[in-house]
Specification:
The protein has 161 residues and is α+β, with helices and mostly antiparallel strands. It has helices at residues 2-20, 33-42, 94-119, 129-150; strands spanning 49-54, 57-66, 70-74, 78-82, 86-92, 154-159.
Length: 161
């Protein structure tokens, strides 16, 4: 079927795009970068979801405020952290992360239908479009929550030297 010939290159394209996404954002280090980044952090809207990495580990919370030497955020209660203990603060977008992984999951599901058909001896043209749609739906359904809870799309707001 011509559909299979169109789907395989599309899956390859999506896979290559996902591989090209850097695992972590690298930022140019300027002499006063931490001070400028802290000012950016202080300007965040209240309630912005953030991830704070410190010597004690990592915590996800909602931004409350940032003073000159401390950061306050809310998760199950208020959390106050000293700037000196903070290594990195990142913002994230759960919706964008979930959408990205849903698309990757859909591509993966389509590829698995193609592989499964090949394994059982099919030629690719005997698979109905509904089967590809089902594979895409299952892949998206499985990968969406992974993206939502792991939030691979993030942006570093503050990084200590």
């Amino acid at each position: 079927m011509k559909l299979a010939a169109q789907i395989v290159p599309a899956v390859a394209l999506v896979a290559s795009l996902l591989v090209s996404i850097p695992a972590k954002t690298q930022q140019t280090s300027l002499p006063d970068a931490p001070a400028a980044q802290w000012k950016t952090l202080q300007a965040l809207p209240i309630g912005t979801p953030i991830v704070v990495r410190s010597g004690n580990g990592r915590v996800s919370c909602k931004f409350k405020s940032a003073a000159a030497e401390s950061l306050s955020c809310m998760n199950s209660g208020q959390l106050d952290l000293q700037r000196s203990s903070i290594l990195k603060v990142e913002t994230y977008n759960r919706t964008a992360s979930a959408a990205l992984l849903a698309v990757a999951g859909a591509a993966f599901g389509i590829a698995m239908v193609q592989v499964g058909n090949h394994v059982i001896g099919g030629k690719g043209d005997d698979v109905k479009p509904a089967v590809y749609a089902g594979g895409a739906g299952m892949g998206a359904f499985i990968f969406y929550p992974i993206g939502y809870f792991t939030h691979p799309i993030h942006h570093t707001i503050y990084k200590a030297r």
